[in-house]
Amino acid sequence: MEVGFLGLGIMGKGMSMNLLKHGFKVTVWNRTLSKCDELVALGASIGETPAAVVKKCKFTIAMLSDPPAALSVVFDKDGVLETIGSGKGYIDMSTVDHPTSTKISEAIASKGGHFLEAPVSGSKKPAEDGQLIILAAGEKALYEEITPAFDVMGKKTFFLGQVGNGAKMKLVVNMIMGSMVNAFSEGLVLAGKSGLDPHTLLDVLSLGAIANPMFGGKGPAMIQGNYSPAFPLKHQQKDMRLALALGDENAVSMPVAAAANEAFKKARSMGLGDLDFSAVFETVKDLQH
Amino acid sequence: MEVGFLGLGIMGKGMSMNLLKHGFKVTVWNRTLSKCDELVALGASIGETPAAVVKKCKFTIAMLSDPPAALSVVFDKDGVLETIGSGKGYIDMSTVDHPTSTKISEAIASKGGHFLEAPVSGSKKPAEDGQLIILAAGEKALYEEITPAFDVMGKKTFFLGQVGNGAKMKLVVNMIMGSMVNAFSEGLVLAGKSGLDPHTLLDVLSLGAIANPMFGGKGPAMIQGNYSPAFPLKHQQKDMRLALALGDENAVSMPVAAAANEAFKKARSMGLGDLDFSAVFETVKDLQH
Amino acid sequence: MEVGFLGLGIMGKGMSMNLLKHGFKVTVWNRTLSKCDELVALGASIGETPAAVVKKCKFTIAMLSDPPAALSVVFDKDGVLETIGSGKGYIDMSTVDHPTSTKISEAIASKGGHFLEAPVSGSKKPAEDGQLIILAAGEKALYEEITPAFDVMGKKTFFLGQVGNGAKMKLVVNMIMGSMVNAFSEGLVLAGKSGLDPHTLLDVLSLGAIANPMFGGKGPAMIQGNYSPAFPLKHQQKDMRLALALGDENAVSMPVAAAANEAFKKARSMGLGDLDFSAVFETVKDLQH
Amino acid sequence: MEVGFLGLGIMGKGMSMNLLKHGFKVTVWNRTLSKCDELVALGASIGETPAAVVKKCKFTIAMLSDPPAALSVVFDKDGVLETIGSGKGYIDMSTVDHPTSTKISEAIASKGGHFLEAPVSGSKKPAEDGQLIILAAGEKALYEEITPAFDVMGKKTFFLGQVGNGAKMKLVVNMIMGSMVNAFSEGLVLAGKSGLDPHTLLDVLSLGAIANPMFGGKGPAMIQGNYSPAFPLKHQQKDMRLALALGDENAVSMPVAAAANEAFKKARSMGLGDLDFSAVFETVKDLQH
Question: What ipTM was assigned to the predicted interfaces of this complex?
C-alpha cells in the first residue's frame, strides 16, 4: 500500500517511520526538505511539493503543526488542492480547530476528493511506538480503506462521525490534560513549599484514584526542571484556546480550563513556549519581576 | 491486638470491619451509638465515650468527619484527653488541617500519651477493601507498633516525619483530585454540548496518558447523574479550602485549584454538599436562576 | 453636512438622532427597515442598501452589532464596497476586533476610499445624550473632516493612530468594565448573604476610592433584578473574548478577565445574553440545576 | 474629650493627629514606643501599655495591623482586658475578620466594658485628611458617645448593627477593590503590549462609566513602577482571604475574587508584600523564572 506523508515534525517523523517499518511505500514531503533525509535512508521517496505527493499517491496523510500550516499545505501554490480529485483520499491527522477542518474538507470535496480528519491523542513516544489513539471523522469509506495505516500508527482508532468531531474530541481531551498538568504542578510546588518531598508525593499519587501515566511519566523530569518537548507548550496552549473557543460557541463555562489557559499564557510570556507543556510548572514556582 | 475505634461514618465503618475480620479485638464508639450495631454483630465491643474507649485500649484509632469533630472527640467532656496517658497511643486518621493535628498532638503529649496522625487517601470502596493509602506522621515508635493495623486497613503506608506532614500530604493529593474532577466535568459537558458522545470521551480517555481510576470509576455514574457519596462534596471543598490556606501560608499561588474551589462552593450553594464530590459536574451544566 | 448612517440598534438610533438634531442631513439604513421610521419622522432620508447610502453620501458612519454584521455590510451584495471610492469616507463605529477592522480598512483602501475606525465607550444613555467617548484610528485627514459629527455624538474624541488601535482600546476598556461588574456582583451577593444590606454597600462604595458611575448607575437596578439592556450581555462577553484573544496574541496572562469571561458565558448558558451585561449578577446568586 | 489611641502605623498616625488637631486630649501607645515621638511633640501623652491607656481614658481607640495584633493588644499581659470595665469604651478600628471582632467584643463585655468595631475604608491619605469612611457596629450608645471623634477622623460614618457587620462590610469593599486593581493592571499591561499608550488608557478611563479615584490616583504611579505603600499588598491579600472565607462560610462562589487573590499571593511570593497593593501590577507583566 502506497501513502503520501506531509509533515515530518516531532510527530510526523515517528508516524511515517512506523509506516515504512510495516511495509508501506511512503512518499514524504516536509517544508524543510532536509528533514526527509532520515526517512529516505529508510526507504521513503521524496515528493517536491504537497501537490506532487498527492499526484503520486492514492492516499495522502498530513501531520502539521497548527491550523495555518494545515491550511497552507492545502490551499497555497503547489498545494494539495492542485492535484486532489476523484479516487484520491486526503487524511489530515494534524490537531486543528473544527472550522479549519471543515474548510479543508469542503475544498477537497469540491475537487471530487475524499477527506478524513484524524487527529491523534499521544505525543512523541506513542508516535514512535505506534501507540497513538486516532480520532477519525469524515468519510466512512475512506476510513475503512486507510485503516491498515491507522493500525500501524495507533493502538486504537475511533470513528466519530462527521468532519469536525475528531478535532473536537481531540480538543476536549487536551483541555482536560492541560488543566491536569496545572493541577499537578500546583500540587508539586505546594508540597515542596510545605516541607514535603515532591518525590514522595509522586509515590503517593501513583497508588491512588488519580494515578495516571502522565503524572508518573512527567513528574520526575519536572522536579528536575527538564522539559524536553514531547508536546510543545505553545501547542498545548493553542489547544486550550481552541477548546475554550468551542465552549464559547456552545455557551459552556469552563473556569478551571480558563485558569489553566492563563497559566500557559504566562508560561509563553516567560519564553517557555517551545519547551514541553509540563514547563507550566515554572509559572507556579517563585518568579521574579 | 486490641484497638479502640472512634467514628463509624462512611470510612470508619469499612476500616473497623477490616480490623475485626483480621482478628483484631475492636472497641468502637460513635456519636450516634446505633451505628455501632453492625460492628457489634461482627464481634466488636462498645465504648460509651471516647474516654472509655481510650481507658480500655492501649491504641485508639479515630476516623472523624472534620476538624471540629476531631477536636471535640479529644477535648470535650468524656473525651480522649481524660484517659490518655503514658503507654497509650492515639492515632487520628481523620483528614484535618495541620494546625488541628498539631493542637491534638500537643494535648496528647502533655498527658504523656503518644500520637500519630495518619490521614488516608481513598474513599468508601478502598476503605472497605483494605486498600487505603495511609499517610502517617508523628512518633516513629508508635508508627511501628500500629503497623499491623495499618497493614489491614491499607495497601501502603508512608511515614512522613513530623506531625502535620500527613495532613499536608493528604491535602495536596485531594487538591489535585479536586481540580481534576472539575477538569473532567468541564470536558464531559463540553463534549456533550459539542455533539460528541460523553461515553466515547470516557473510552478515549481510558486509553491515553491521563487515564486514571477516578475517570473510569466515576465517569459513567456522572453521565447518569448518579452521585452516591463515596466522598461527600462538602468534605472535598473543605480540603480544597485547607489546601489553599496552606498555599496562602507559604505564598504559593494556585489559580487552578482556586477556580476549582469556587466551583465546589457553587455546588454547595446549589444544595449538593452531601452528594459525592463528582456532583460538581452539575455546576458545569446549564443552570437556572 | 450630509452623512450616511448604517445600523439603528440601541446605539445607532441615539447617535443618528443627535446628528439630526444638530442639523446634519442624515441618510439611514437598517437591516430591518421599519426601524428607520422614527428617524425618518425626524427628517432622515432612507437608503435602500448600504451601497445606496454610500453612493449618496460623502461620509458614511456605521454602528453595527458585531464583527459578522460589520463585515456583511461592507462585503455582501449591495454592500459598502460596491460604491465606496475616491473622495468618500467610511467611518465604522462598531466594536469589532482589530483583524476585522483591518480587513475592512484594506478593502476600502483598495477601492480608493478612506477609512476610520471609531468605536465608542458608553452605552445607550451616553449615545442618546451625545456623551460618548470616541476612539478613532486610521486616516488622520478623514478624522479631521468628520470631527464635527464626532463632536455631536461624543463628549471627547481620541485619535489613536493606525487602524486597529481604536478597536484595541475599546476592548481594553470593556475588559476592565467586564471584570468590574463581576467583582461588584460578587460583592453584592456576599453582602446580602452575610447579613448586610446591599443598599448600604452601595452607599459605602459611593464614598470611597472605587466609587464610579457604573456602580451607582446599575447597582439599584441590579438589586431589584432589573436588567433592561443598555449594553447586552452577549456583546460584553464577545468583547471579553476578543480582549482575551488580543492578550493571547501578545502573551499577556489575564486570570481575572478570564474568570469574568467564564461568568459571562455561564450567564449566556442561563439565557441571559440579551439582557444588560449586569445580569451576570444572576450567576453569583444561588442557582438551581 | 479624652481618648486613648493604640497603634501608630500608617493609618493610626494620621488618625490620632487629626484628633489632636481638633482639640482632643490623646494618650497614645505603640509597640515600638519611639513612633509616639511625633505625636507627643504635637501634645499627646504616652501610655506605657495598652492597660495603662485604658486605665487612664474613658474611651480607647485601636488601629492595629491585623487580627493577631488586634488580639494581642487585648488579651496579652498588660493588655486592654486588664483595665477595661464598667463605664469604659473600647473602639477597635483595625480591619479584622468577624470572628476576631466577636471574640474581642465578648471579652470586653465579660469585664463590663463597652465595645464598638469600626473598621475604615480609605488608606494613608484619607486617614491624614480626616476623610475616612467609618463602618461602625456594636453598642449603639457607645457609637453615639464616640461620634465626635469619628467626625474628626472620617467624612462619613455608618452604623451597621451587631458586632461583625463592620468587619464584614469592610471586607466586601476591599474584596471589590482588590479585584478591580487586578482588572486595571491587566488592562494596563494589555494596552502596552498591544501598542497602545497606557497613559491614553488612563485618559479614556477617566471619562467613562468606570472612572474612579483609584484608577486616577494610582495609575500614573503604577505605570512608573512606583508602589509606595498607602495600603500594603500583604494586608490587601489578607482581606481578600478573609472575604473569600466569609464567602465560603455562606456558600457564595466568587471566581473573580478568587483569581484576584491568587494574583496577590503570586505578588507576595515575588517579595512585593510590603509595597502598595497596586504592585500586583508586576504579576501581570512579563516575569522570569
Answer: 0.91
